[in-house]
Amino acid sequence: MTTSPVKALVVDKLEVTFDRFRALRGVSLDVMPGESFGLVGESGSGKSTLLRAVAGLAPTSGGSISVNGKRLDGKRTKAFYREVQMVFQDPYGSLHPRQTVDRLLLEPLAVHGFADIEKRILRALDEVGLGSSFRFRYSHQLSGGQRQRVAIARALILEPSILLLDEPTSALDASVQAEVLNLLEQIRRDRKLTFLMVSHDLAVVTHMCDRLMVMQNGAEVERLSAADLAARKVTQAYTRNLLVASEGFVRPGTPAA
Amino acid sequence: MSTLLTVKDLRVQFPTRTGVVDAVRGVSFTLGRERLGIVGESGSGKSQTGRAIMGLTPPHAKITAETLNFDGIDLLHVSAAERRSLRGNRIAMILQDPKYSLNPVMSIGRQIVETLRTHEKVSKSEARKRALDMLAAVQIRDPERVFDLHPHEVSGGMGQRAMIAMMLVTGPELLIADEPTSALDVTVQLDVLAILDNLVRDRGMGLIFISHDLRLVSSFCDRVIVMYAGRIVEEIAAKDLHNAKHPYTQGLLNCMPKIGADTHPLPVLDRKPEWAA
Ligand SMILES: Nc1ncnc2c1ncn2[C@@H]1O[C@H](COP(=O)(O)OP(=O)(O)OP(=O)(O)O)[C@@H](O)[C@H]1O
Ligand SMILES: Nc1ncnc2c1ncn2[C@@H]1O[C@H](COP(=O)(O)OP(=O)(O)OP(=O)(O)O)[C@@H](O)[C@H]1O
Ligand SMILES: [Mg+2]
Ligand SMILES: [Mg+2]
Fold first, then answer.
1. Domain ABC transporter spans what residues (chain A) (predicted)?
2. What is the full DSSP assignment across A193-218?
3. A218 CA from centroid of ligand 3 (Å)
4. Site residues for ligand 2, CB cut-off 6 Å
5. Is the minimum CB–CB distance between A132 and chain B shorter than 8 Å?
6. pLDDT at position B197, please?
7. How close is the Cα of A24 to the center of ligand 1, in Å?
8. Is A228 an interface residue toward B (CB < 8 Å)?
9. Which residues of chain B register pLDDT less than 70?
10. Using only C-alpha atoms, what is the Rg of chain A?
11. What are phi and psi of B18, to 5 degrees?
12. Domain final position from B143, B171, B199
């Protein structure tokens, strides 16, 4: 008998409560090392909260989270952030506007005592398709998509083994999105990375992920493989509605194209 | 169709430490009471075009234009006070990063109420009711709870919808929506689009809809402008977007992942220097 490998991430019956509001109501999932797991669902359903809880940034009130077989409790250590990095949904909030791109990339390297800083910064910028001319810009001098690419570069620069990606490409045009998705896939393969990824775009999720969970109102609606979603083998009405809505806008009174 | 907005040869430049950035380089278009989509490369000047029309360009930037005219008003030469009053009343913009644009120390509900009350003489309780209705209209679950939350306490898509509610509550004649639905799930997205659609159809609002989502733009807008490196490279009827001629636009369509298509890696654009000429 072969022993199954230690799971990269296990979330078990997780509860997160803000004041009296239950943002997560007993959500469970597990992700194998090297796997890419997707979260889709209603706006406000708790997807970011789930990622933030893993990163130690949301108040859990029940259930558990384990990373690489180790149960997490309380404050995350510096070593944890070497392993687990998060790309936040809102790049304005996560990047200090009065810092240069250079400072933003340098800081995590300095905190974790990396050498060869110069080389890593240049490589990180290159990987996300920003030339070195962006290096000394302030983040408020960047467009939305440029800022998002800096946020991705900042998460990758520490070479973590688990990446939590919250809408990593929703601020990017289709061409840059394709480049960033290709980059993420390639890095995942080369470095055996594990992804937990939120996206509203079902095409992006089925492209990037093996399995996914559909969420609504703080809870799981269903869990399925990306292949089943693509083949429209879904069991819940809500998931079906998402598939229909993905086809675009239909003006009332006009027949669907 | 009557013209609401005329933009001719708009240019926006930023001086920076490493030289001048030409963010917008001669953009021209007109807008009637219709839905005009703007798509284009990240960094191509879509937001800066919208901000220039709104009068929200950073003060150190240089703006020039042959014409920048809203309903007979020369926007380049109006007083700052008139600009502000236009902005509060007749022209509104849903900014790309709503959570950053909302006031962090004021509850969502109060921000909507105050916006409404600077615009219209309504009682406090009436304003509260209208704000709650607006939040419900943009599909916020439990508007009463969300009314009292601060921007950092709402999700990405809730912040976006709060911003939409705040901009729509005053009934603008021109709405510039910069990626207004990028953080919304697809079903809520369609509900929000239906609201914007009604405003264009029933109230004759002019809408500039900036989006990365080509599928959405082609199904929702009337016309589409495609931008690349600060310029318009193509203008096309939205329903003909799939027949676009410019290689950038064609390339854009090809690099989108599609449900069920298993293309790894995705095709990427081979950008030609002459596109930016
Ligand atoms: N600090 C907080 N205080 C109070 N409520 C909060 C806080 N953070 C999140 N919430 C609530 O938790 C719920 C889930 O938010 P979350 O950001 O996880 O949603 P989401 O699924 O990521 O949505 P979106 O797709 O819009 O980003 C929301 O109703 C939100 O108001
Ligand atoms: N304050 C500033 N100083 C210098 N350059 C700036 C400033 N603000 C914006 N820019 C530059 O102007 C260009 C156009 O920016 P804009 O925000 O309009 O792009 P965009 O088309 O909206 O892109 P995105 O799709 O990524 O949001 C970008 O290259 C950006 O880096
Ligand atoms: Mg979120
Ligand atoms: Mg923009």
1. 9-242
2. -EEEEE-S-HHHHHHH-SEEEEEETT
3. 12
4. A 141-146, 173; B 14, 16, 21, 23, 40, 42-48, 58, 96
5. no
6. 96
7. 9
8. no
9. 1
10. 19
11. -105, 25
12. B171
